[in-house]
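Reply to thread "Modeling small-molecule complexes from scratch"

Following up on the discussion above, here's a worked example others can learn from. I took a protein sequence and the SMILES for zinc ion and predicted the complex. Inputs first:
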Amino acid sequence: MTDPRTAVAAVVDPEIRVLTIDELGILRAVDEDPASGRVVVTITPTYTGCPAMDVIRADIRRALAAAGHPEAEIRTVHHPAWSTDWISESGRAKLAAAGIAPPSPVGAPGVVALTLAVRCPRCGSPETEQLSRFGSTACKALWRCRSCSEPFDHLKAL
Ligand SMILES: [Zn+2]
């Protein structure tokens, strides 16, 4: 049997296929109920507009069944709310490599809020403009780089 935490952490986000749900910060906990022996997975949904959570739940069930834990329970927790700050360092690096601009950290305590330039993931230029509030999915906005003229997806910061 595969460790349930390892099995669940490898599930890929259906919206942002380069990231696992662990790197995206959706996966909160994988525990084992000591009484029943059942695996209990706790997840926090990302954007409310994303229809991906049903897909993620089904993928978690499939991964756990394949790992020898078919009786898993999946709990959804809404507080604290997910934010793009929960994306891991490796997740941010993968987003950049995939041409998706990683969101700037939001709400850092003691830091004056600044509107930071969205940098082009291809050439790194801060000379960018938003083309559309909605990119390839509801979670992403479509931006264009004025230096290399390439359009790119920017993950909306929450
Ligand atoms: Zn560029």
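What I'd highlight from this example: The longest strand covers residues 27-32. The chain has two domains: 4-82, 91-155. Questions welcome below.
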